[in-house]
From TrEMBL:
This is Dopamine D1a receptor. GO terms for molecular function: dopamine neurotransmitter receptor activity, coupled via Gs; G protein-coupled receptor activity. Residues 1-218 form the G-protein coupled receptors family 1 profile domain. It comes from Myxine glutinosa (Atlantic hagfish). Its main location: membrane. GO terms for biological process: adenylate cyclase-activating adrenergic receptor signaling pathway; positive regulation of MAPK cascade.
Length: 218
């Protein structure tokens, strides 16, 4: 997800300021952006998990998996999260990146829209310059209308492409991160591995999010 966020920012810079982008986007800057992204990933996932900061330090652990601490195997996977970690990790790894992506892709669309209209205006001006007599007036009007329709189609295509990219991404990951924030606030019912919802439902939403990676090439 952070990869997609960095890519969206990179594309926005490249489109909004192409000449400045060519000058400033050096391999060193690219490596710095990638390093920041990986550092955030380590800070919100690897380190908290290794230090057990992510676990729910309440007696509800035994209630979540139906066993008592003394009966737990060392290999037992504790999937319960405390509220602070669940919210902070979801904000950093999903909600904030999604907000950034929405802003960048919206601006990219507006820039593309302006560029398409400018190109269409230049095309119409070029066609008008070719009309030297009044007899060509009707033809010029038809060509202008055709150019406008082509411009509208281009804008629609850009909007559809960006909408599909963001729509699929949000639809795949939003359910999981909503549950990820809700689960720590629910009271355990003692019958499933996860409070409030079944483990099967949670697993389905997890795989639904991972499926987004397979949809990206399409």
């Amino acid at each position: 997800i952070l990869n997609l966020c960095v890519i969206s920012v990179d594309r926005y810079w490249a489109i909004s300021s192409p000449f400045r982008y060519e000058r400033k986007m050096t391999p060193k800057v690219a490596c710095l952006m990638i390093s920041v992204e990986w550092t955030l990933s380590v800070l919100i996932s690897f380190i908290p998990v290794q230090l057990n900061w992510h676990k729910d330090q309440t007696s509800g652990y035994a209630e979540l998996n139906g066993t008592y601490p003394g009966d737990l195997s060392p290999d037992n996977c504790d999937s319960s999260l405390n509220r602070t970690y669940a919210i902070s990790s979801s904000l950093i790894s999903f909600y904030i990146p999604v907000a950034i992506m929405i802003v960048t892709y919206t601006r990219i669309y507006r820039i593309a829209q302006k560029q398409i209209r400018r190109i269409s205006a230049l095309e119409r001006a070029a066609e008008s310059a070719k009309t030297a007599t009044a007899a060509w007036g009707t033809s010029s009007s038809m060509e202008s209308e055709s150019s406008f329709k082509m411009s509208f189609k281009r804008e629609t295509k850009v909007l559809k492409t960006l909408s599909v990219i963001m729509g699929v991404f949000v639809c795949c990951w939003l359910p999981f991160f909503i549950l990820n924030c809700m689960v720590p606030f629910c009271e355990p019912d003692g019958t499933t591995d996860f409070p409030c919802i079944s483990s099967t439902t949670f697993d389905v939403f997890v795989w639904f999010g991972w499926a987004n990676s397979s949809l990206n090439p399409i």
